[in-house]
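tl;dr need the bound structure. longer version: we got a ligand (zinc ion) that a collaborator sent over and nobodys looked at where it sits. i said id run it. heres the input, straight from their email, havent touched it
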Amino acid sequence: MKKLALVIAATMAVSACDNRQSDQGAVPQSGSPSAAAQVSYGADDTSAGTVARAATEGSISLSPEGARAFLDDAQARLEKMAEEVSHAGWVASTYINLDSQYTEALAVERYTTLAVELAQEAAKFDNVELDPETRRMLTMLKQGLVLPAPKDPELTAELAQIGSKMQGMYGAGKYCTGEGDKEKCYTLTEMGQVMAKSRDPKLLKELWVGWRKVAPPMKPLYERQVEIANAGAQELGYDNLSVMWRSKYDMPPDAFAADMDAQWSKVKPLYEALHCHVRAKLNEHYGDGVAPAQGKIPAHLLGNMWAQEWGNIYDIVKDDDMQAPYDLTELVVKSGMSEKDMVKVGEKFFTSLGFKPLPETFWERSQFTQPRDRDVVCHASAWNLDGKDDIRIKMCINKTGEDLITIHHELGHNFYQRIYNTQPFLYKEGANDGFHEAVGDTVALSITPKYLKQIGLMDEIPGEDKDLGYLMQQALDKIAFLPFGLLVDKWRWQVFNGEVKPGDYNKAWWKLREDYQGIQAPVQRSEANFDPGAKYHIPGNTPYARYFLARIQQFQFHRALCDAAGETGPLHRCSIFKNDAAGKKLRNMLAMGASKPWPDAMEALTGQRELDAAAIVDYFQPLMVYLQEQNKDRQCGW
Ligand code: X8Z
Ligand code: ZN
């Protein structure tokens, strides 16, 4: 999520990784915009430059000056309301209860009302000749909302309430087993830890099925959310919400979908090779009865609740002679550092690149660990609540290598938010949402053995003979993720455009999971299940294509920054820690926010104007050679 708090980010997402919609606060009791802020456009706007009805003293006209005045006013109003939504959203995420949800929904309702109204006003400038900058801002204003509502106050309120309710259901969700005194409940965080470590297929299956019980009650809410938001998108001139979501990438929406597919086709051979090898290793470990040697891999065996990243089963996948160069979890635990210390490690990386240290308020206001006394949304997110320096992360940190990486991911959002905080409101965003997701991951690619030695977590840098192990570990997270990153929004796009009806939600989900990932549910599924709802970003309404983009982009960024740092060795050994030249390049690009089309930002950092999967493919080339050799007598595919 992104923005003030992610909500604002997407023009109106408040936080990164959490698309709670902003609200609007500056609305007087009557519910109409304050006089000073009011803009209206008369019906007599037939001639160029026609002056609309005066809003207070000044009048706003359908002219270039009128557009700029309108934008100034719109941004001021949105920014103020976004701040209110952010605070309400923070409370709703860190104290899940009826009242926090009520307050948040009200804030979101107000923000959505304002944003929709302004988007419709912005459309009135469609036929006015404008400079590119003004046009860009108006377009962004029209595309800002992640979930637009139609201009009906009841529907706007209903949409906001559904959003808060589903987030709360997910955040408070638990799997309980046993009865009466014997009942024991597990949080998602606890289940995630077991899924990562346990090799007991029966237990893994139980948790896999158990967690998914959280979702069926969400299904009617989700259906209704889609219905209302689609109507909202249509009122804004889009065919449906799918088109609106895909319109935010400085290119036509269908071209964006086609580019995603094109990138996927470039990395697919790598995924297929990894899948083939992992399937064989799982078969060796569990045997035919649990993990068949052919076909799709049972989804509960991959070390992750959603089978989206597989790094936790490295011990099963590695060869005997392929020792990991290190176990990051072990290093974290051995060092004795606290959860907050882990965040300090992340901060230190960014400050070594010339970023300002995090403000004191970050340390006071962030949520680092899971509170014992209440339900919270544990899914990690990064927030900027005031559009300035009130940045925070919200996590339930465990002392694991995985969470150390996630901390870097979240801090990437925060440092991005902070460095573009002098941009106008509409530009306080990533160049596109993939950029926002890629920053922290890019930095985390520099968590190499050389770096870990520099910060005293490791004594010796392992020899090159350990590189394959390191690459395998990385691939189990980075490459395994790609089809999942692609399919989540493929599913949503089909749902939004009506290709997939509610009666087929789960079937369509599993078709994509099977086709793209080559995995299958460990037990029979039906439409009584709503498995997409068991993944945070569906009830949380966070677009997901961004993570696919980010996986591709972060390797482009890493390659460019390593070049800038003058590193000449293999990319997987490069770390930009403490490198001024790389830091400057990164900071300059991030400071642009969304002020320019994303290819400009990409060019500023990498010299390229397109997404280029060659960087990730090159990074893993030595592993690909190894996988091909391992797979040579195997029948791959599913
Ligand atoms: O949601 C996230 C971040 C917050 S933006 C923790 N990620 C995706 C996920 O967990 O599904 C990062 C990787 C993909
Ligand atoms: Zn993120």
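gonna send this back to them w/ a short note. The chain is about 55% helix and 5% strand.
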